[in-house]
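Thread: Peroxiredoxin, structure

OP (GT): Posting the sequence first so everyone is looking at the same thing. Length is 195 residues per the record. Can we get the structure tokens written out before standup tomorrow? I want them in the notebook alongside the other entries.
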Amino acid sequence: MANLMEVDWHSLPEPQDDGAANHLGGARIPDVALTATDGTSIALAALGGRTVAYCYPMTGKPGVALPDGWDMIPGARGCTPQSCAFRDHAADLRRLGVDHLFGISTQDTADQGEAAERLHLPFPLLSDADLALTSALRLPTMDVAGATLLKRLTMVIDEGTITRVFYPVFPPDRSAADVIAWLASAPYRRASGGV
């Protein structure tokens, strides 16, 4: 599968719910700042309103081989289609009350920046290369080729508290649509009493 966007999801192993995200619902986001691809530093815990943060293992680069056996690791394949789906639905998410949208991986900011530019993402990617957020929240991870990578999940965060977790996420290109469907049924009630 040379094209990062053309994926036959039926040919890939589907990730199973291993319970590794069960503790996240209702959890407070720790006060950890992450470097963003737009050059800022973002502390999810300090953000007001509603935030959607999707975690993904790693974005591949055209012409650079993925780790050996990548496609057969359940949930590994599909980071580019997932990011593009959130890109394509960013306006829909805003209309449904999402104030902040981010992708998070353990890749460094340089690799993330290449992906954000190439994919024309209208939101920043956040780097947790030092695993500070991953460790503090005990996010589900996998070890691939000597690197600790995040398993794919999406969090809806309201005023620093995780109110909904999507895990496992499969197929990845449907992730944004799944979040939108949930948001449509669970409008955000702001502190002022508005929607």
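GT: Both are above now. Quick notes for whoever picks this up: The chain has one domain: 29-185. The first strand starts at residue 33 and ends at 36.
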